[in-house]
Amino acid sequence: MSDNKFPGWHGTTIIGVRKGGKVVVAGDGQVSLGQTVIKGTAKKVRRLTPGGMDVVAGFAGSTADAFTLLERLESKLEATPGQLARAAVELAKDWRMDKYLKNLEAMLIVTDGKDLFIITGAGDVLEPEHDVAAIGSGGNYALAAARALMDGDTDAEDVARKALAIAAEICVYTNGNLTVESING
């Protein structure tokens, strides 16, 4: 592809919702290349158990890059058991400073049931306002929908599912094949 960058893989929406003592991370299953859907059932939300501690992570971006980052996060969590914030900051520092890692194109939403963070390659570890985090192609649609749903009687999982359903209706890079993981705070 000469000097042009590979057109890139697109198509996912990941949301994290904290409500009622529970955190849910949910993601759709779509992977697209340009205008073509390559796969509709990808699993981009995973439960990690480094050192026996449960952490749920969702990723948007390049799959290989995300798996590299998830492996690094697991090793950081093993080095700092029960300290998700510290592990997330250490990962973000490495991601920004390491000459190989800084080229990775992905974003993560991670939670241990207590904390909820978005981790980026720019060195950001963001704790979202309003207990909702969203990333990916349809992230802003899902974020807006979830924030509107947070005041109702629905629980965290229902908010996440409904928000992703709304995003799937609007964003061509988001579908309705969901992976949902929850963890209690």
Structural notes for this entry:
- Helix content is 31%, strand content 30%.
- The protein has helices spanning 63-79, 84-97, 139-149, 156-170; strands at residues 9-10, 13-19, 22-27, 31-33, 36-39, 45-48, 55-61, 106-111, 116-119, 125-126, 132-136, 179-184.
- Helix 1 packs across helix 2 (84-97).
- The N and C termini lie far apart (47 Å).
- The model has no long low-confidence stretch (mean pLDDT 90).
Query: Stretches where pLDDT falls below 50 for ≥5 residues?
Result: none
Q: Which of globular, elongated, flat, extended, rod-shaped describes the shape? A: globular
Number of strands: 12
**Proportion in β-strands:** 25-35%
What is the CA-CA span between the terminal residues? 47 Å
Quickly list its features.
185 residues; five-stranded antiparallel beta sheet; four-stranded antiparallel beta sheet; 4 helices
In short:
This protein is α+β, with helices and mostly antiparallel strands and 185 residues long.
Lay out the secondary structure.
Layout lengths: L8 E2 L2 E7 L2 E6 L3 E3 L2 E4 L5 E4 L6 E7 L1 H17 L4 H14 L8 E6 L4 E4 L5 E2 L5 E5 L2 H11 L6 H15 L8 E6 L1
Antiparallel strand pairs: 1-4, 2-3, 2-11, 3-12, 4-5, 6-7, 7-8, 8-9, 9-10
Helix pairs in contact: 1-2, 3-4
